[in-house]
Amino acid sequence: MYREILTIIGGFILPFTILQVWGRLVNRWKVAGGFLSAFLIVGPIWLMNHGMTFSLIHQTGGAFVDMGLATGVGIFVYGLLGGKSFQKSLYLLSAALRGGLIAGILLYLVSK
After folding, report:
1. Hey, which of 15, 33, 54, 91 would disulfide with 26, CB 3.0 to 4.6 Å?
2. Cα–Cα distance for residue pair 39/74, rounded to 1 Å
3. pLDDT in tens, the chain (112 residues)
4. Backbone angles phi, psi at 83, to 5 degrees
């Protein structure tokens, strides 16, 4: 049971941190803030979720798709609960899915 709870916590941490920090860094430092956010948020949270000996997310498959999915779903739900229309929230979810798809393809090509 503890693995399931840790997986939920691990899936919550990334979208929560993105929603709290990313926009502020981008507003302050523009494009450099976006790269800084990617470096300071996604990297350490990936290590916490997957890269440690006792990681938060218990991964059973060969592909690490859960952080992208957690981010997309988290931002989708945040938009719905924040008063955005379903269509606007769906647009945010589709943008997250397109970004994840592009990143996955690029990582596959780089890893060959």
Report:
1. 33
2. 20
3. 787 788 788 888 999 999 999 999 999 999 999 999 989 998 898 888 877 777 787 666 655 556 777 888 888 888 889 888 888 888 878 887 888 788 888 888 998 7
4. 95, 5
